[in-house]
Specification:
The protein is an alpha+beta fold. It contains 5 helices and 11 strands. The termini are far apart.
Length: 178
């Protein structure tokens, strides 16, 4: 792999760019739902009410007057049913602590969404003694898995899908004990 250097006049040894070494640097594609062109200086999502203000999407309180209307990236993902994150929770422990685990997942989402309005759960469904959760971004499933591991132990692993903007994670706990 070629070294990429930054041109720095007056520096004898300019810094050398190197990949971070984790999955996000080489095999992680840019988010296809990220706007290629920034929305107008103030744009409000017609679905959820989040506003693009000062260069970021945030909860506006009151929508600004004269704001453009459009869909935010999270609502576009929901409309297209195109999740960026997937996490599955399973194991005998889940059956005995189902409601607690769902509450924890919802609390993690609420905390994340308060700060980052585009990070949301698209779907939480039960299938074959598993919880299957899909999200609008790649960070929320990891936070959910880490919260489950922190609160209930078990095993959490995840991976970024090569050449896609997708994260898949799995949390399991095989015992039924507290």
């Amino acid at each position: 792999m070629p070294d990429h250097t930054h041109d720095s006049p007056g520096r004898k040894n300019p810094p050398v760019w190197k990949p971070r070494g984790d999955a996000t640097s080489e095999t992680f594609r840019k988010d296809p739902y990220e706007e290629r062109h920034r929305p107008g200086s103030s744009t409000v999502c017609t679905e959820c009410g989040v506003a693009f203000l000062d260069g970021i999407w945030k909860w506006p309180g009151e929508p600004p007057e004269g704001a453009e209307r459009g869909l935010c990236p999270a609502c576009r993902r929901a409309r297209d049913d195109y999740p960026a994150g997937f996490i599955t929770a399973s194991g005998p422990f889940l059956r005995g602590h189902h409601d607690e685990i769902v509450n924890l997942i919802r609390n993690v989402e609420a905390s994340e969404k308060a700060e980052r309005p585009l990070h949301r759960i698209l779907d939480l469904r039960e299938a074959d003694d598993e919880l299957q959760i899909t999200t609008t971004d790649v960070h929320l499933p990891r936070r959910i898995g880490e919260a489950l591991r922190s609160a209930y132990s078990g095993h959490f692993d995840y991976h970024y899908v090569p050449n896609e903007h997708i994260l898949r994670g799995r949390w399991t706990r095989d015992d039924e004990d507290e």
